[in-house]
Every structure is written in structure tokens, then in C-alpha cells.
From TrEMBL:
Species: Rhizobium sullae (Rhizobium hedysari)
Alphabetical list of Pfam families matching this protein: AAA (PF00004)
Protein's name according to its UniProt entry: AAA family ATPase
Start and end residues of each ATPase AAA-type core domain: 20-69
Lineage start: Bacteria, Pseudomonadati, Pseudomonadota, Alphaproteobacteria, Hyphomicrobiales
Top-level lineage group: Bacteria
């Protein structure tokens, strides 16, 4: 893996990037980060949940259709894509200039998911498919709580297999996220 340890180096690379992948556990702030960077650099923002995975009523789109939609999007010249699903890393990583991996502590992720639910209760947030109102259940909270232990090894293996030379910056605190955004400057 091409790990980046310096936020300044990552900011420099981001300023020149055309295709950015933002991954991490739900509730960690990856969507907010991706939308902010998209606005600053006029990159098309792609929510994997909205564009590829979900149909109204929380119905999961068929996997072949998901992959076809993802393959079409990644061929675009410029984008920032918000989503961790490793089953499409073979399509996404080879086209990615840099990965931002938001790796917040699980309590922060749980708080982020619950506070988002409270904010959007009964409504659909903009990065979700219309007809998929915000929800939190025990299965979702368990996914968040166990993400580092169960899912991070899968993420690491998929990155090694499909994008070993793609630079990756891990953001493990809100302070690091703010530092990165400060270094990127204000929107044009």
C-alpha cells in the first residue's frame, strides 16, 4: 500500500487529483468530507448508496446492475466517490488518484450515525436514494461497532489486490480532517 503519513502531502496530491475515493465506517464523516472536497474542487460528488446500491424502500439493487453503473461512472474523467463497498474495488481503485480512509473511533461513528438519524428522522437525506428514510437499527449499530475488526481487514486486502500503488491517507481524528480541509483552502 502507498500509505501517506503527511496530511500536507495528501493535500498537495488532492489538489491535483481528478478521481478521489473516500471510504470508511458509517457515521465517521466520510460523506461530509467528500461533499466538502467536491465543492472546493468542483468534482462531481457520487454517493454509492444513492447512485448504485439502493432503490426506493431500502430495496437493494441487483449486484450486476450495481457493477454496471459503477463501471460507467468510474470511466468519467473527474469524480469524488463516497463509499466503502469492497466488492467494486476492482473497478474503482485502478481509476482512483487518491484514497481518503476515514477511520474514526467506533464511538464517534456510532454517535455520528445516531445524530444523523435524529437530524433526518422520517426523511431521506440528500446522499440517499429518494424513498429511503434515515434509519438506525441494531444490525446497523453492530456493523459500526465491529467495523474495524471485521471489515477493515477486508478493505486492506482489497486495496492491496486492486490498488497497491494508489496513495492512501488515513484520517483518524476530526482534527486531522480539519487540518486537511484547511490545507485545501476555500472553494474557488
Amino acid at each position: 500500500m502507498a500509505w501517506l503519513s503527511d496530511v500536507r502531502d495528501a493535500a498537495h496530491r488532492l489538489k491535483a487529483a481528478d478521481r478521489v475515493l473516500v471510504i470508511g465506517c458509517s457515521g465517521g464523516g466520510k460523506t461530509t468530507l467528500a461533499r466538502t472536497i467536491a465543492k472546493r474542487f468542483d468534482l462531481p460528488f457520487v454517493s454509492m448508496d444513492r447512485e448504485f446500491f439502493w432503490l426506493p424502500g431500502w430495496v437493494e439493487r441487483a449486484r450486476p446492475e450495481q457493477r454496471a453503473l459503477i463501471a460507467k461512472w468510474v470511466r468519467q474523467d473527474r469524480w469524488i466517490m463516497d463509499g466503502t463497498n469492497t466488492s467494486s474495488f476492482d473497478l474503482r481503485l485502478p481509476r482512483t488518484d487518491i484514497v481518503l480512509w476515514v477511520r474514526m473511533p467506533r464511538l464517534i461513528c456510532v454517535w455520528g450515525a445516531v445524530s444523523r438519524w435524529l437530524k433526518w428522522i422520517g426523511r431521506t437525506r440528500p446522499e440517499m436514494t429518494p424513498g429511503c428514510p434515515e434509519k438506525v437499527d441494531l444490525e446497523f449499530l453492530s456493523y459500526i461497532w465491529n467495523f474495524e475488526k471485521k471489515h477493515s481487514p477486508i478493505v486492506l486486502a482489497a486495496m492491496a489486490a486492486h490498488g497497491p500503488d494508489v496513495p492512501v491517507l488515513q484520517l483518524k481524528s476530526r482534527r486531522q480532517m480539519r487540518e486537511l480541509l484547511d490545507l485545501l483552502g476555500s472553494p474557488a
